[in-house]
Amino acid sequence: MASLDRVKVLVLGDSGVGKSSLVHLLCQNQVLGNPSWTVGCSVDVRVQDYKEGTPEEKTYYIELWDVGGSLGSASSIKSTRAVFYNSVNGIMLVHDLTNKKSSQNLYRWSLEALSKDSSPTRVIVSNGDYDREQFAENSVPLLLIGTKFDQIAETKRTEVLTRTAFLSEDFNAEEINLDCTNPRYLAAGTSNAVKLSRFFDKNKQVRKGQHSTVTQRHSSIHNFLNPGKKGTDFDEDVWIFGIVAITFHGKSCQTL
Amino acid sequence: MSFLVDSIIMFTSQVLFFGFGWLFFMRQLFKDYEVRQYIVQVVFSITFAFSCTMFELIIFEILGALSSNSRYFHWKLNLYVILLVLIFVVPFYIGYFVVSNIRLLQRQKLLFACMVWFTFMYFFWKLGDPFPILSPKHGILSIEQLISRVGVIGVTLMALLSGFGAVNCPYTYMSYFLRNVTDSDILALERRLLQTMDMIVSKKKRIAMTRRQMYQRGEDQNKQTGLWGMIKSVTSTQTGSENLSLIQQEVDALEELSRQLFLETVELQATKERIEYSKTFQGKYFNFLGYFFSIYCVWKIFMATINIVFDRVGKTDPVTRGIEITVNYLGIQFDFFYAISSNKSSNVIVLVLAQIMGMYFVSSVLLMRMSMPLEYRSIVTEVLGELQFNFYHRWFDVIFLVSALSSILFLYLAHKQAPEKQMAL
């Protein structure tokens, strides 16, 4: 079980945005008391229930790789960091809501991680600038997380939220804004928790390589259920897939 | 009339320096951060501007530009302002920003900042006692008192930096010291690093699963009643938590190992890049400079020893050598500042940098007096009063020697330790 079901998610962002606090909150369900510098990479494991609430419920592990450092590091540090970017199933981009530069740097972070990924199916050609089309073709799911939400004054909240909405559009990703010192933001049942589990389920599916069969099945189901709607938004259909396609999957497993 | 013209010239040059410092701050120091408090930028630029103006005045002195009255006036003015900034403004703001970072003291920020400043002033004053820097006929708040203390601190700093730079620079540039690193070494280390990470992951999975099982079993066990049930619950959770703490210890050790491996890999990569660089034309040029420079540094260390042993005041200027070495070293210093700065402490770091820079420049002026021909010394002596300049030179030599020797020792140990680690891998 261990070697087959590895789901690896990178947690990237500038120094001091709160990646270690976030990872600790996600994995230990506790607030990190004494955050300190991350040297190299620190890994933590989250136990997640796939297809929660369905008969097909399965527990699996998500590895959160919290890579420390900054974009301006020496090239020796950057090339060593690249070792951690191999075979990644998902990326969480973390930025500090009180610091605009950390949000802007996320473009460079995602570029650094995706261009070093050694998967042979995707080649990213870039001259260092951000290119939206390339990110649209990107098959690694991204999640945008804004931290230190509590430190923003009430009056500035709408302005900040519009800015992050633009950002999540650029990355074609969901966004979550929270405060890593307050577990309330990720409590079960909140929209944040829902987005989080959707993201992790996406990673799991990308990993299993069911991606092609999944899209075929779900698009046919989708068109069946909503004949008027064209085009697909993959994560909306996860739920439909989860409920309806179980029978198909179960049957195909039985025949094997 | 000429006074007005001179003042305008001085003022424009100061504004220019201020703008330059502002730009430097924006482009270099605060590249990755957002400037939230402009006061830091302003203070830094002011310190920079006035430090540069002092050097400009020395140059004007030698060139004989501007009339000597206006020069004298501007010297005095500049000196007062920079002392004001270095002793009152910058330390206060450093204290203020340090205090704002500590969560406990948030409420009474100003009060605590003042307390920090008074502590600083107390130590600053006490600094004067053990040193023979002034004669008792001067008053308390005279300019000589302040300058002498600032001078001592600045000279110490300069000597420390120069000593370290004198040893570090040739070490960095000379290829003789570069260990031979091959690609396969790096790959082997990277593989080990990833293996360690995998081990950490599998252990953490075990911990998570065990914890989950304990939690679930704990729920079931709440339903178990009776004596037997209670005993069973106690023993099973005991072994469970003992196991957990054992695995947790292993995980901690592995994490430490992964950090070490990461740092070693970074060093190997850096060495490999330096080897490649040394093969280029530029690299060869710096290599040659490194050899030349190391001979120069050795000679300077020798001269410092001679000066101390034979109790003589150096005829050659420590300042120019100090400047050469530290200019090279400042590049490395900035890397160090980048490495230790973070969003919170970036303000403090920049202010500390401004303070060091200011003190450094003031003491440069002090030491430079020795190297100037007699006719130019007069104005400096007049402005700075009767300070014991010989003392400063001696003090510089001592600290320089101490710093250089300890850096040699430190680098030697580091160099010896590294190949041993390589063998152990």
Automatic annotation (TrEMBL), chain A:
- Which Gene3D superfamilies does its entry note? P-loop containing nucleotide triphosphate hydrolases (3.40.50.300)
Keywords annotated in UniProt: GTP-binding, Nucleotide-binding
Indicate whether Nucleotide-binding appears among the record's keywords.
yes
Q: Which SUPFAM superfamilies match?
A: P-loop containing nucleoside triphosphate hydrolases
The keyword Ubl conjugation is annotated on this UniProt entry: no
Among Pfam families, the record links this protein to:
Roc
**Signal peptide (UniProt feature, chain positions):** none
- Superkingdom to which the source organism belongs: Eukaryota
Q: Which GO terms describe its molecular function?
A: GTP binding
UniProt cross-references to InterPro entries, sorted A to Z: P-loop_NTPase
Q: Which PROSITE patterns match?
A: RAB
For this chain, the family text in UniProt reads: Belongs to the small GTPase superfamily. Rab family.
PANTHER family cross-referenced by the UniProt entry: DRAB5-RELATED (PTHR24073)
Its job = Required for KRAS signaling regulation and modulation of cell proliferation. Regulator of KRAS prenylation, and probably prenylation of other small GTPases. Required for lymphocyte development and function. Not required for myeloid cell development.
Q: What is this protein called?
A: Rab-like protein 3
Species this chain originates from: Gasterosteus aculeatus aculeatus
From TrEMBL, chain B:
Q: What is its main location?
A: membrane
UniProt entry keywords in alphabetical sequence: Membrane, Transmembrane, Transmembrane helix
Q: Which reaction does it catalyse?
A: bromide(in) = bromide(out); fluoride(in) = fluoride(out); iodide(out) = iodide(in)
InterPro entries, per database record = ABA_GPCR_dom, Golgi_pH-regulator_cons_dom, GPHR/GTG
Domain named Abscisic acid G-protein coupled receptor-like is located at 277-327, 337-416
Query: Which protein family is named in the record?
Result: Belongs to the Golgi pH regulator (TC 1.A.38) family.
Instruction: Give the protein's recorded name.
Output: G protein-coupled receptor 89B
